[in-house]
UniProtKB/TrEMBL annotation:
GO terms for molecular function: dihydroorotate dehydrogenase (quinone) activity. It comes from the Bacteria. PROSITE patterns: DHODEHASE_1, DHODEHASE_2. The lineage of its organism: Bacteria, Pseudomonadati, Pseudomonadota, Alphaproteobacteria, Rhodospirillales. This is Dihydroorotate dehydrogenase (quinone). It comes from Zavarzinia aquatilis. It is found in: Membrane. InterPro entries: Aldolase_TIM, DHO_dehydrogenase, Dihydroorotate_DH_2, Dihydroorotate_DH_cat, Dihydroorotate_DH_CS. It catalyses: (S)-dihydroorotate + a quinone = orotate + a quinol. One of its GO terms (cellular component) is cytoplasm. Its cofactor is FMN. Catalyzes the conversion of dihydroorotate to orotate with quinone as electron acceptor. NCBIfam families: PRK05286.1-2, PRK05286.2-5, pyrD_sub2. GO terms for biological process: 'de novo' pyrimidine nucleobase biosynthetic process; 'de novo' UMP biosynthetic process. Keywords: Flavoprotein, FMN, Membrane, Oxidoreductase, Pyrimidine biosynthesis.
Amino acid sequence: MTRTSTTTPVGWYRLVWPIIRRFDPETAHGIALRLLACGIMPPVGGENPASLAIRAMGLAFANPVGLAAGFDKNAVAARHLPRLGFGFGEVGGVTPRPQVGNPRPRLFRLDGDFGAINRMGFNNEGEAAVALRVRTARQPGFPLGVNLASNSDSEAPAEDFVRLVQGFAPIADYLTVDVSCPNTKNGRMFQDPVRLDDLLQRLLAARGGHRTPMLVKLASDLSEAEALAIAEVTMRHGLAGLVVANTSALRPESLTSPHKGERGGLSGRPIYGASTALLAAIRRAVGKDATLVGVGGIFSGEDAYGKIRAGANLLQLYTAMVFRGPAVVGAIKRELTALLARDGFASVADAVGDGSALT
């Protein structure tokens, strides 16, 4: 597959990018989050053409581009995400108890590679604080999901997930069971299919009378066989689908940044190829009815189109905003709209899993 991703800053962000990159990445992220939470960030998302509308998990999305978990861990800015043009958002990861995460520095920009490495460690304010904000942030026409994780010092990680499903199923539009974080002790234990099988049985029971859709989030560095085993368990239990994929613990030889050896999860452009290939393999295995959320290295409309034709119904991004700014979502939507029209697709749904981009 040929890929020519655009990585330049969009709009006014090109004027402030030289200043922003002088800040520690976590500090810069905190400033951006506070500006958005205060409603200061100008609306830059653009229109939502009818061709971008899609239904997935029984929910309606004005467009398929969503904010990935990790940007707004505590749901402080969730109600303002439509201003950036997103079609949905995912807050968290949230743990039952507040968690400080790993020591700083724990977030690194890979300039030149257009990637990032993080070992944040699920720093968040805990279930109670986040749930209050989720209740007030939800709004018609903008699905809001919650990414669920266990506390790193938990002696009963499965119980953590049960508690979170019980708490968030009544108030979230969908839930993501994050079993693929490389930065905490319990982050990947449920990637074992046997453990996952038991966990999902318990989580489905924990929803009670609520039919809140649930997704399982995979790592991007799984082998195809490992990923398909997890997908099989997920779909056998009747979950809505999977998020493909989380950050990677692997380091491609192509990386050039001085920070390339930092411990943590790699995100952004360097993982686009691997995560998209994994997405395509899972789509072939699970068929057309499952919801697949494509994540990893989306910087442009072309990148988004590649994920969709590989099998993604929905998309998520985060690292692209670091390098291209908040107006990147509007740019991606415009480019994606043009690509769909060029190839004769009336809607995003028509292009899902078409596969031509992978040949």
